[in-house]
Amino acid sequence: MKEFYLMIDGKKITTETKFDIVNPATGAVFAQAPDCSPAELDLAVEAASRAFQSWKIDEAARREALSACAGILRSSAEDLGKILTEEQGKTFQQAKGEFEWAAWWIDEVLSMEIPIDVVADNEHQRIELRRKPLGVIGAIMPWNYPIILSISKIAPALLAGNTMVLKPSPFTPLSSLRMGELFCAVLPPGVLNIISGGDDLGAWMTSHPGIQKVTFTGSIATGKKVAQSTASHLSRVTLELGGNDAAIVLPDVDPKQIAAEVFDSAFSQNGQACIAIKRLYVHESIYDEMVDELRQLAQKVVLGDGLDPNVNMGPINNLAQLERVIELTEDAREHGGRIVTGGKRLDHPGYFFPPTIVTHITDGVRLVDEEQFGPVLPVIPFADINEVIGRANATDYGLGGSVWTNDLDHGMELAARLDCGSAAVNHHTDFHPRIPFGGAKHSGYGIQNGIWGLDELCQLQVISVSK
């Protein structure tokens, strides 16, 4: 097996214990990851704290180093992509593309200025608002998009002058550890430390007194624990949690024209995305046609090992998530749901579940009310637009939502009525380095991306001068 290391203070660290990493396409262990101890976490935080003292000073040097990181991601995308496919399950093209996307993301972040805002400037006084880095940022990552979600935290945090200790998911640590190893060639020691371990490591990080802010992407249940834990030291926190995004299709659209984009928004990477469409409400006048278009698209999907170039959908990432998808699908079936296509785990090794369309289902059934985070989509008819807006909002989730219509003004009006952090018309939300991203209600708090996200990685300082 290949050897993987913790990356602390610019050095490769071998741990006393390791944990197994399973290839979801086979269900078999293919590698081991280093298991970080509390003492090694302390070393990582101490290294980040030391590095912060010099890293925060020179913005030009920070920009140069981050630009070099983007170059490394581009030149290493093939090698790193293979590791990501083996541990995560996504196709190789998706995995390679995630590293290329991450390189582009860094470039976009570097194109932004860290502004100094002039609040007032008159004959008596000048008042400026400046942004100062916080110190050591602790980042805890999920398994669905481990690289782009990490880079979306790393790039603005480091640009602002912070240093970081990053913990990837225990399901997908290897590509992040290898990425950190490559970054050591261009980042000063201690600026970015990448450590791996289980849930205990996450709890140690969130309660660590040397971490000034925790940024977390993951489930609502874990997010609540993060919020409680960080409170012990009054550490700042940003939480990007789950979603149960509703998409509403109005009667003035042609299902043939939008079905492919709706399908991709629901099933890309097996629906394992916080901002995927999780509930699809379709006007009753076009409901049957929309279901049929989605069925045809689902039946064209080639499911298999992501390293096979003929495959366009890989497995679900882990056994626990597969079992949850099966459980919600069976519960829907028991409550009268009709499986239009899919609905059964494939009978061969690996965590494969085909894209599944479910009809004859409505609110109150778990598949509609809960976040499935997998390749199963409930399609629900509606007759009255005001009623369906109410149904879309009748949830504790509030991450994203969308409206599909040819009447753009009406679409904007309806999108504004959705209780979510990001609402879209004729597509399903945006995740972009310049666009603020965050959830309403139980889908989290705090903003990532753009100047608004940068502000959350900084201490805003007012400097006033009397003339």
How is the topology of this model organized?
Blueprint: E1 6-8, E2 11-13, E3 18-23, E4 28-34, H1 38-55, H2 59-75, H3 77-88, H4 92-110, E5 117-121, E6 125-133, E7 136-140, H5 146-159, E8 163-167, H6 174-183, E9 192-194, H7 199-206, E10 213-217, H8 220-230, E11 236-240, E12 245-249, H9 255-267, E13 277-283, H10 287-299, H11 319-334, E14 338-341, E15 356-359, H12 366-369, E16 376-382, H13 385-393, E17 400-404, H14 408-415, E18 422-425, E19 444-445, H15 450-455, E20 458-466
Parallel strand pairs: 7-8, 7-10, 8-9, 10-11, 12-13, 12-17, 13-16, 15-16, 17-18
Antiparallel strand pairs: 1-2, 3-4, 5-6, 6-20, 11-19, 14-15
Main β-sheet: number of strands, strand sense, barrel status?
Answer: 7 strands, mixed
CATH superfamily of the largest domain: Aldehyde Dehydrogenase, Chain A, domain 1
Distance between the termini: 68 Å
Counting helices, strands and paired strands, the structural category is alpha/beta
Mass-distribution shape:
globular
**Radius of gyration based on Cα positions:** 23 Å
CATH class of the largest domain: Alpha Beta
Order of strands, main sheet, comes to 14-15-16-13-12-17-18
Question: What can you see in these coordinates?
Answer:
The structure is a single chain. This protein is an alpha/beta fold. It has 2 domains: 262 residues, Aldehyde Dehydrogenase, Chain A, domain 1; 181 residues, Aldehyde Dehydrogenase, Chain A, domain 2, CATH 3.40.309.10. It has 15 helices and 20 strands. The strands form 5 sheets. The protein has a 7-stranded mixed β-sheet, with helices on both faces. A 6-stranded mixed β-sheet has the order 9-8-7-10-11-19, sandwiched between helices. Strands 5-6-20 form a 3-stranded antiparallel β-sheet, with no helix packed on it. The longest helix is centred in the N-terminal third of the chain and has 19 residues. 53% of the residues are buried.
